[in-house]
Amino acid sequence: MKHLSKLLLLVLIALVPVAAQAGQSVVIIADLENGLALIPEGSAIPHGLTIYARVINHEPKTAAGVDGVAPAGESIHQQRLEWAFAPESRFAAARKTIAAAPAFATAADRVFTIAPDDSDVTYYVYFVDGSYHAARRIISGSCYGAQASVYTPAGDYYNGTLEVTLSSTEEPFYDETDNLYINSSGGSVGTYFRYVCPITSSTHIISTGHIGHHYLPICGHYGEPPCNESYNGTLDFYFP
Question: Rounded CA gap, 14 and 22, in Å?
């Protein structure tokens, strides 16, 4: 059974508004084993972006925690993932997965014609099993758009759940929750592309994503990893 004995339960990502070229993609690999957030060699560290990981460490023959609560003999801690560089070849699998996954935010491309001085950035946080949580942030003229998705590939798990949300206290039009029950074939789920024209004050947008896998026994026993693994992320950014 090929899944981790160290599970990422929470990634917190804080994004501040920065200028970017239209259609930019930022791929970050969450290297939990080494506590690193990896970006390609030669690229700039994303300004205003911080990643935290909430990790369960468990002893062999101990069942997995439920809803983030560690069983006896296990511990939960939150750590900041430090920025580090890796060869571009390290990102080949991530880019291939992202390119082959269902199209992201195609509605935005029908609504907007992104000009060179507009901002159009999609952030991908890529996990070791090939799953990712993504959010697209667009500023086009006086319009402000957002969309989010989660994806997980086929695996040796039995079934699982995917959930993604958008929300904003200042502008409830962005609020949306979508979920999907999956089998071992994997899948993806995403929000609609939502935009407001114009925004008259600073607007805080939050996207949460949940990727859960459930394995059948003998998981959780005889030194096997837990029966449940969970990747949960929060992408946090602002308009304008």
Answer: 20
13-35 confidence digits (pLDDT tens): 454 443 444 478 889 998 878 88
Q: How far is CA 26 from the centre of its chain?
A: 12
Taking the CA of residue 34 as centre, how many other CA atoms within 13 Å lie in the half-sphere pointing to its CB? 12
Which residues contact residue 67 at a Cβ distance below 8 angstroms, ignoring those fewer than 6 apart? none
Residue 234 lies in a domain: yes
pTM of the model: 0.80
Tell me, rounded to whole angstroms, the distance of Cα 93 from its chain centroid. 16
Count of structural domains within the chain: 1
Half-sphere exposure at residue 21, Cβ-oriented, CA atoms within 13 angstroms: 3
CA–CA separation, 49 and 53 (whole Å): 14
| 110 to 113, 114, 134: CA distances (angstroms) | 8, 10, 20
Structural domain harbouring 209:
6-239
For residue 109, the SS3 value is: helix
Q: Is residue 1 part of a domain?
A: no
User: Per residue in 131-155, pLDDT tens?
Assistant: 998 988 888 888 999 999 999 999 9
- DSSP states of 134-194: EEEEEEETTEEEEEEEEEE---S-SEEEEEEEEE-SS-GGG-EEEEEEEETT-EEEEPPPE
**Count of CB atoms situated within 10 Å of the CB of 114:** 16
Q: Is the residue at 232 inside a domain?
A: yes
Please name the residues in contact with 172: beta carbons below 8 A apart, sequence gap of 6 or more.
Answer: none
